[in-house]
Automatic annotation (TrEMBL), chain A:
Family to which this protein belongs: Belongs to the ABC transporter superfamily.
Keywords on record: Amino-acid transport, ATP-binding, Nucleotide-binding, Transport
GO molecular function, one term: ATP binding
Keyword ATP-binding on entry: yes
UniProt name for this protein: Amino acid/amide ABC transporter ATP-binding protein 2, HAAT family
Pfam families: ABC_tran
Family annotation (PROSITE patterns): ABC_TRANSPORTER_1 (PS00211), ABC_TRANSPORTER_2 (PS50893)
GO BP term, example: L-amino acid transport
Automatic annotation (TrEMBL), chain B:
CDD domains noted in UniProt: TM_PBP1_LivH_like
Pfam families in the record: BPD_transp_2
Keywords of the record: Amino-acid transport, Cell membrane, Membrane, Transmembrane, Transmembrane helix, Transport
Cell compartments where the protein resides: Cell membrane
Top-level taxonomic group: Bacteria
Record-given protein name: Amino acid/amide ABC transporter membrane protein 1, HAAT family
TM segment ranges: 12-35, 42-62, 68-87, 99-118, 149-168, 189-218, 230-258, 270-289
Principal location listed in the UniProt entry: membrane
The organism of origin for this protein: Fulvimarina manganoxydans
Length: 233, 295
């Protein structure tokens, strides 16, 4: 079976600077992968390039058999990709419920509002507040919840635990496991290595704008040497 | 005779009403400018020309096709909106990636072209435009004679401003618009066709300007220069209200219209400059405008 997302020799640029130098990535349906790497190696750029936010790109992004390279930004989501940016992107001039219902439905099978409020009870309590009045953790929940409503089958998640308290990090881990049980495919960029090893099926190691290794989470011990080498820890 | 601050109350209330009528035009025009600036980040110098175009389309509908005021009040804004959409799609949209100055220069040039075409065809003098019979006549309010048509202008402007505000604050389309004003790229990544939203927004701003133009046609004459006469004041209104603030643009429009009217009572010589004096004071004390958020 061919993977749901197949990235081959992906290059991208911010103006003159060449960031991705030939990324290869395979993600199967229902799999959660985590991209690990030092700061500035191109992890966030990988997500932004797949999503089409970085338009200066070259290579192959095959999703569900279709090449996304030529797809305009506003049509990418309709192929089933949902993006949760690192800065969360909650809108200050929209209420929590407006933030939640902002992204248009892209496919059948998204969560209903009731299901979302069951998974994120805080959001229900605060649904009439301005989006940016929420705490950092609640904003992260909101950023994820609004994608779950759309029916997207693949979640591109950029450092969801950054700057959050341990109890919130745990809650986000629970949410990711719930999503996994519903068959969601997740591409996670994460600095929090312990968090990543609890939710991911497989790691990708990234350095200098390309993937330098991949292994399943259960082979973590055998790969510690490579991990230390790449992460420089 | 009742006096207010040493002024006969008749004169006071009369100018207050005239100020409110002028404010009705300022509010409609500055609202359109604010909506366009908020999302497109373009200072639309063609706004006065679109206002003039609205009046001229109404005039031509009547003169050439015999279509009277009431249908023209709907048709003219739609025609000007379509014109605005074509301009945005074919020309203005090419400038978004460049410095904002290019958008300003382009719309300024566009305004000169539109005005030039109409001056060449109609000269600088005004064409009379007959208002609807239904609104002819007026009411003696005791302190002044209020022409029915002018009362209608105030009501129509209030209703349209309120409807536009509700559209932006309370509807799904409005939430796209507000979100795209904050972060257009992310909204587009969610699957919203932001380029189309930009076109619709420019068309909406153009329609509001044209609506004001049709409202103005029976009061002021339909003239190629009517837009450039009013637009400078409207820019001052937007600056005082705060760039991009929707409610600020509406309220400031009415407030400055009234301030202008009242200045005519107390110190008539200053009535032409009072808005710019207020603008200078606001810029010195609150550079983001009365209702603007600090950028």
């Amino acid at each position: 079976m061919s993977p749901l997302l197949q990235v081959r020799d992906l290059h991208s640029w911010y103006g003159e600077s060449h960031i991705l130098h030939g990324v290869d990535l395979d993600v199967s349906e229902g799999e959660t992968i985590t991209i690990l790497g030092r700061n500035g190696v191109g992890k966030t750029t990988t997500l932004r390039t797949i999503m089409g936010l970085v338009r200066q790109r070259k290579g192959e992004i095959r999703y569900n058999g279709e090449d996304l390279i030529k797809v305009p930004l506003h049509k990418t989501a309709h192929h089933g990709l949902g993006f949760v940016p690192e800065e969360r992107g909650i809108f200050a001039t929209l209420s929590v419920s407006e933030n939640l219902t902002l992204p248009p439905k892209v496919a059948e099978g998204g969560m209903s509002l009731d299901e979302i409020f069951e998974l994120f009870p805080n959001l229900h309590e605060r649904r009439n507040s301005r989006g940016t009045k929420l705490s950092g953790g609640e904003q992260q929940m909101l950023a994820m919840a609004r994608i779950l409503r759309t029916g997207a089958k693949t979640l591109l998640l950029d450092e969801p635990t950054e700057g959050l308290a341990p109890v919130i990090v745990q809650a986000i881990g629970d949410v990711l496991r719930t999503l996994k049980s519903r068959g969601m495919t997740v591409i996670l960029v994460e600095q929090n290595f312990r968090f990543a090893s609890r939710v991911a099926d497989r790691f990708y190691l990234m350095d200098h704008g390309r993937m330098v290794g991949t292994f399943p989470v259960k082979e973590l011990d055998a790969n510690m040497a490579m991990l230390n080498d790449v992460l420089g820890v | 005779m009742t006096m207010v601050f040493g002024i006969p109350i008749q004169a006071f209330l009369g100018q207050l009403l005239i100020g409110l009528i002028n404010g009705s035009f300022y509010a409609l025009l500055s609202l359109g400018l604010a909506v366009i600036f908020g999302l497109l980040r373009v200072i639309n110098f063609a706004h006065g020309a679109l206002y003039m175009l609205g009046a001229f389309v109404a005039y031509l509908l009547l003169a050439e096709l015999g279509i009277p005021y009431w249908p023209a009040l709907i048709i003219a804004p739609l025609i000007v909106a379509a014109f605005g959409a074509v301009i945005e799609r074919t020309m203005l949209s090419r400038l978004y990636d460049l410095d904002h100055l290019y958008g300003l220069l382009f719309t300024f040039g566009l305004a000169l072209v539109i005005e030039g075409v109409f001056r060449w065809e109609y000269g600088a003098s005004g064409q009379p435009y007959a208002g609807p019979d239904l609104l002819s006549g007026g009411t003696n309010l005791g302190f002044m004679f209020l022409p029915t048509y002018r009362a209608w202008v105030v009501v129509a402007s209030l209703v349209v401003c309120l409807a536009t505000w509700l559209l932006i604050e309370k509807t799904k389309l409005g939430s796209y618009l507000r979100a795209a004003t904050e972060n257009p790229t992310l909204v587009q990544a969610f699957g919203v066709n932001v380029p189309l939203l930009l076109t619709l927004t420019y068309a909406l701003g153009a329609a509001l300007a044209a609506f004001a133009g049709v409202l103005a046609a029976p009061i002021y004459q339909v003239s190629p220069l009517m837009g450039s006469n009013i637009i400078i004041v409207v820019f001052a209104v937007v600056v005082v209200g705060g760039m991009g603030s929707i409610l600020g643009a509406i309220l400031t429009g009415y407030l400055l219209g009234i301030a202008e009217g009242l200045t005519k009572v107390f110190y008539p010589e200053a009535s032409n400059i009072v808005i710019f004096v207020i603008m200078a004071i606001v810029l010195l004390t609150r550079p983001a405008g009365l209702f603007g958020r600090d950028a």
